[in-house]
Amino acid sequence: MSKFAKKKDGDVPAVSTASLPDIVFMLLFFFMTVTVMKDSSLKVENVLPNASEVKKLEKKDRVIYIYVGKPTREYEKVFGTEPKIQLNDKFANPSEVGDYILMERAKKAQELQNVLTTALKVDKNANMGLISDIKQELRKVNALKVNYTTYEGDAFRNLE
Amino acid sequence: MARRAGAPEVNAGSMADIAFLLLIFFLVTTTIETDAGLDRMLPPIEPPDQDVVIKQKNIFQVNINKNGQLLADDELIELRNLREKAIAFLDNGGAPQGSPEYCNYCKGARDESSSDNPSKAIISLKNDRETKYSTYITVQNELVGAYNDLRNREAQRLFGKDFTAMEAEYLNPETPSSVKDELKDKVKRIQDLFPQKLSEAETSTN
User: Fold this and answer.
1) Which residues of B touch A37 (CB under 8 A)?
2) Which residues in chain A have Cβ-Cβ distances shorter than 8 Å to B79?
């Protein structure tokens, strides 16, 4: 009888979990590849204004970022409280913007060099004087396509 | 003598746990976001070869002072009324019927002292160095909104679709190229009806 006793009917065999690590690794690699680590940490306050007529900024590889705003608290002592320009990881003067754009442009692939957009991420409390200086510098290096990066929302909330 | 076995097998049971841990880390840190904002073209720095003479009535002058007050065509107005004003100016179509500049799709007041044709109408924006950026963006937003409202109206009339929706679809990289080619003509056509002429450089008038 023992010959038959082994067969226990009704018992579901355990599901093999041997492939679980493979599946998880697959997911892991997916997220590892799509993750974009921030390459520059913000040293300025950057609360963007709101706008409703926005267009999406597709294709990150065609964008050069310029940050403008008041230095954050830890840099306040050294750089003061007036709005400053941040290029990559350091503060800069308006006169350095042109060189920065040329440098960033040279890093991009040849076919992208003519379709670059400059994204201006400017704090809502900055003054237009500084922005005008930046725009003038951008015109000098022929980087005419700009995008004033904003949040999506009611533009009149800016005035409060 | 017992034969020595190879290296003992490593227990891989915890591999899944480790992988899960890493997976959760990357899940949490991933931000798949796209920035959005107002697209603008700056004027090239080289001045045009010859001076272009623009009639005063075809220019809509917007000045923002450092307190965020707005002067549109020498009139102090509220920011909330700017879009309305801009639309009235752009859509005016003041050129008389029969003249080459006559605008047959304009629905404005046809006031002779305002713009002749949307393709002639220029909005000139000037700001103080101490104007706040947020005010400037609001003004920009309203002016772009005025153009978009008018373009939407024409796109609805001609194609039964909003211009902004068509343009977004055209710019979306996932749109198949066959649809894109078709959209390109439509988008171009609407853009030609109301070309965006928003000048921020110094414009001299006479």
Assistant:
1) 29
2) 156, 159
Closest Cα of chain A to B1: distance in Å?
A: 35
Cβ neighbours of residue A36 under 8 Å, at least 6 residues apart? A60, B31
Place of tokens 């754009």: A101
> Residue B162: CB partners within 8 Å, gap ≥ 6?
B152, B155, B156
For residue B46, give how far its alpha carbon lies from the nearest alpha carbon of chain A (Å): 9
The model's pTM is 0.76
Residue A93 pLDDT greater than 80, yes or no: yes
With a cut of 50, say whether residue B133 has pLDDT above it: yes
Percent of chain B with pLDDT over 90: 0
Q: Which of B34, B41, B136 sits opposite A56 (nearest CB)?
A: B34
- Is the pLDDT confidence value at B188 over 50? yes
For A72-96, what is the mean pLDDT? 85
User: Cβ A126–B12 below 8 Å, yes or no?
Assistant: no
Q: pLDDT digits over B85-108, tens only?
A: 888 888 887 777 777 778 778 787
- A142:B44 CB<8 A: yes
Domains, in order of start, for chain A: 50-159 (3.30.420)
Strand partners, B108: none
Return the residue in A31, A136, A144 with the most chain B beta carbons within 10 A, the one to mutate for interface testing.
A31
With beta carbons less than 8 A apart as the criterion, state whether B15 and A21 touch: yes
Domain ranges of chain B: 56-199
Place of tokens 């080459």: B100
Say whether A158 and B137 touch across the interface (CB within 8 A). Answer: yes
Asked if the model's pLDDT at residue A36 lies above 80, the reply is no
CB atoms within 10 A of CB B98: 6
